[in-house]
Amino acid sequence: MRRRVVVTFDYACDPGLVWDINTRFDSFGRLMTGVATFEGMPEARQLARGDVFDVRVRLFGWMPAMPYRMEVVDCDHAARRFCSVEFGGSIRQWAHVSEVVETPEGCRFTDSVTVDAGLATPLMPFWVRNVHRSRHAPRLEIIAKRRAGLPSG
Q: What is the domain class of 3-147 according to CATH?
């Protein structure tokens, strides 16, 4: 039993900027503030095909840490698209496709997640939407800081 959720946002800026924010580990913690913290994430660098991360995740930053694995199946920086497969805790599989495409106004950012969490799967679309929507405001803040030449961490 799987459920698919697609979340899309439009940004009035260069697609390369949004892609960079989406694929740099030094942005990830900021984007996940209030949702989860991750122990064992790589240092500041960009995501790459073949990356495999065994981390410990704490939902909301305070729940008990649980093992979680992220595998980057594909990452095409020229096309601004990556695919990952993740699992851990109640998540049997979290298949994630993320892409940024140019639009006349700037760019469109899309996250598509297909999730299987066993008996919890029917509840997962609510969680997935909230997790990915919660990243919008911090992404806007990082965009504004980078445009102003300020540190965005």
A: alpha beta
